[in-house]
Write a structure and sequence with these properties.
Largest sheet: 5 strands, mixed
Strand content: 15-25%
Radius of gyration: 17 Å
Number of helices: 8
Structural class: alpha/beta
Distance between the termini: 42 Å
Number of strands: 5
Strand order of the largest sheet: 1-2-3-4-5
Amino acid sequence: PIPRELEFLGNREVRMKLWRDVTKNLANQYDKYMPIAFLKMLEKSNIFKIEDIGVRISRPLTKYVELTYEDLKINTLFYAINGDVNSSDIEDLHRGIKGTNPPVHCAVLLYTGEKTQQAEDKIVNKELGKEGENLILDVHVHPTLAKRIISIYRAWQDYREDIKEDIFISVVRRVSLQEINLHEKLRDWLGIQ
């Protein structure tokens, strides 16, 4: 079944083709489109303002932006992992954070699997969380949500002429507020800074 979140696409055939393609090739789609699809969803929701900082990060699945939320500008590194988070991911993230200028204020860790105990230990050892600098903000993205985010992004990129704009904005806001819920996670994260 095709999710309600694609109801903004007027052409039913396009809707079915897009959902099947993303579902069938989720691993490749995730590697190709995340975290850019996630950022576009946040931007289109009008909850956040997103500006590219202009710093090139050599690791794929990584994007460094200035995220503005409630008039607060936060240099944010979005780091996507398709699957479980392990200690080498945290080591890689740590290198990215420490070597970046302007400095990273927050690292949003997007992942579809679980966070291993070794990853949790590495976060503490590198002082990235649990009474360290608390730079990491966890965002677990269930594979079904990942499919929705990527499908919405691809629809916006590839089939814009078939989009009913008012329904599109409504869907993006609903998914951003109710399923991604980054605004609440960010508010909690700011509270412990």
